[in-house]
UniProtKB/TrEMBL annotation:
One of its GO terms (molecular function) is S-formylglutathione hydrolase activity. It holds the Pfam family Esterase. The keyword Ubl conjugation does not apply. It catalyses: S-formylglutathione + H2O = formate + glutathione + H(+). Serine hydrolase involved in the detoxification of formaldehyde. The active site is at 148 (charge relay system), 224 (charge relay system), 257 (charge relay system). It comes from Porticoccus litoralis. Belongs to the esterase D family. Keywords: Hydrolase, Serine esterase. This is S-formylglutathione hydrolase.
Amino acid sequence: MEQIDVHRCFGGQQLRFRHPSAVLNCDMTFSIYLPPQAEQGVVPVLYWLSGLTCTDENFVTKAGAQRYAAEHGIAIVAPDTSPRGEGVPDDPEGNYDFGLGAGFYVNATQAPWSNHYRMYDYVVEELPALINEHFPVDGDKMAISGHSMGGHGALTIALKNPGRYRSVSAFAPICSPMHCPWGEKALANYLGSNRETWSDYDSSELMRSAQRQLPMLIDQGDADNFLQEQLKPELLQQAAKEAGYPLQLRMQPGYDHSYFFIASLIGDHLRFHAQYL
Ligand SMILES: N[C@@H](CCC(=O)N[C@@H](CSC=O)C(=O)NCC(=O)O)C(=O)O
């Protein structure tokens, strides 16, 4: 593992690393914020999953989360959003909603994607093992959050691994990828045309069969251009109602899909997770 960047930030450190990933079959970068408390001992850790077109750096440079992470003594790990590098296939037409920057946090089963696109295993297994080995974090105190495609990733990963995370939150998540154009394109390519296999990565479907419940907070702007066609929080809300799942979904007036929205409310999300970590 190679350190490629470091900055002092709110008394802690904002760091960036490159490492070989056996799961993704390529080199990957990730960012980690260590709060000042990490100099005295281990701290809890929040995993942040970003959306379409992002690398690990969008959240680090735009969300302003470090101030709150330092306040609550929480480390934040931000992975990239897809495998990268020569030999990693991309959308044949170069569209932003599939391929590079659009791994959708699934394990692809279809050629040519399955050689590299295994972001689910990377985020759930390989990256936490690396983080727990090399940084002063408590691997038993983990939470997960994300935005848009990353919100979908955070919700599905938490719902599939409820014992692993103490809490989950999301900003403007894709709530049912089986029922929106971004998700249908990604799942059909990564998983194949059998829609039954897609439900394993659909938070609205997973919620209906959840055996354990986690604290879950979602913020959604009502001026978000993607709200009706791609995000569909009403589908998750309906599933939560049917399953009796304690979902806290807040519609935020006037907010769009951007990192200005995330920066405005990230303090609330860090405070939410700190209660359970
Ligand atoms: N470029 C696209 C829109 C892409 C976009 O909005 N990406 C979002 C995530 S969308 C869902 O996963 C994002 O986080 N962008 C990075 C940023 O720094 O804002 C278009 O033209 O519509």
